[in-house]
Amino acid sequence: MTDGGADARSAHLPVMYAQVMEGLHVVEDGTYLDGTFGRGGHARGVLQRLGTGGRLLLMDKDPEAIAVAEQEFGADPRVAIHRGSFTDLAHWGAAATGLDGVLFDLGISSPQIDVAGRGFSFGKDGPLDMRMDPDSGESAAQWLARAGEAEIADVLWQYGEERMSRRIARAIVARRAEQPITRTAQLAELIASVMPRAKPGQKEIHPATRSFQAIRIHVNRELADLEAGLDAALAALRPGGRLAVISFHSLEDRIVKRFIARHAKAPAGNRRLPAVEEFVPTLRAIGDAQKADSTELAGNPRARSAVLRVAEKLAEPRP
Ligand SMILES: C[S@@+](CC[C@H](N)C(=O)[O-])C[C@H]1O[C@@H](n2cnc3c(N)ncnc32)[C@H](O)[C@@H]1O
Fold first, then answer.
1. 82-95: pLDDT as tens digits
2. 283 alpha carbon to ligand 1 midpoint, in Å?
3. Where does a domain end: 198, 219, 240?
4. Is residue 206, in this structure, part of any structural domain at all?
């Protein structure tokens, strides 16, 4: 279940570009929101498909992403830019007027992983930060300095499916009693030191991969943000508007899959209970989950963990 998202960013075209463009079904004078601007690979594609009457709204939590958006698209009268979480899209006037498409390309961007100073990478030493928005919430170092052993173990298990979660949590708590854990290399080495060696023939990933993913998901409240963002997107979409979400691990994809199913299909009835109100679908799934195609995988095998789901908002039934 580890996250290939960050690695998948190294290719030139953004992940699943053609499928995203097709899924969003951009119309010339429509209004679209890219809630995860990153470095604008998908945004650029949407903009190319918009006419002079179209609108493109760009959001990102990360101030560096927003600076790139301002620099590259700030002068385009069709574009509006807002720094913040996509969970808050309802509070942004530009997005509240109705959207014809919403894209969430989840996870972290390659600049976030590549710059050691952001603290996301176990491969590059840097301050142990991991916040997409460095001005909000606790850094990974702050959280690891105060969280209880059981809480750390739970996060590693739930968000990283790390089987050695208890052992790693115990080692973190023992180490921090001697010295604060403030660097990515320090944490990566500590984790590696308590992990069993890979057996011969066993696929080897860095021993800190799962733990770093888990801590990042926790520090950025990624799953709670996704749940709230999907609700906000559905509320802001116009009938016929499209929702496209790219996930990079099973925890995210499960949330997206269940969200679409909950709004598209009547829940299974229970014969022992009286029938509740008639179910009215608000979404229609557009096809099944999509994976990167063989051409993209051949050029960028790390896109293998990307899963795209697309749904369309339905019109409210007439009374
Ligand atoms: C995978 S990158 C997006 C790449 C982008 N599609 C492109 O083509 O360059 C994910 C971006 O989403 C941002 N992000 C993640 N969660 C967010 C949230 N809840 N609200 C706003 N931005 C978020 C991250 O800061 C990161 O810049």
1. 999 999 999 998 88
2. 24
3. 219
4. yes
Does residue 213 belong to any structural domain of this protein?
A: yes
Q: What is the pLDDT of residues 254-308, one digit of tens each?
A: 999 999 999 999 888 776 766 667 889 999 999 999 999 999 998 887 788 999 9
36 pLDDT above the threshold of 60: yes
Tell me the one-letter amino acid at 219. Answer: V
Q: Which atom of ligand 1 is nearest to the CA of 87?
A: 19
**Residue 65 structure tokens:** 């992403």
Listed residues 219, 249, 282: the one ending a domain: 219
Q: Is residue 301 part of a domain?
A: yes
- Cα distances from 293 to residues 85, 299, 301, in angstroms, run 30, 10, 10
Distance CA 114, CA 10 (A): 10
CB of 45 closer than 6 A to ligand 1? no
58 touches ligand 1 (CB under 6 Å): no
- Domain of 101 in residue numbering reads as 5-110+222-313
CATH code for position 179? 1.10.150.170
151 with 94, same domain: the answer is: no
Number of domains in the chain: 2
Which two tokens mark 155? 């996060």
Q: What's the pLDDT at 266?
A: 87
Would the CB of 65 count as within 6 Å of ligand 1?
yes
86 lines ligand 1 (CB under 6 A): yes
41 carries a ligand binding annotation = yes
Of 74, 73, 99, 76, which Cα lies nearest the Cα of 86?
Answer: 99
On whether residue 117 sits in a domain, the answer given is no
Closest atom of ligand 1 to 5 CA is 1
**87 Cα: distance to centroid of ligand 1 (angstroms):** 12
* Distance in Å, CA 57 to ligand 1 centroid: 13
Distance CA(152)–CA(54), nearest Å, equals 46
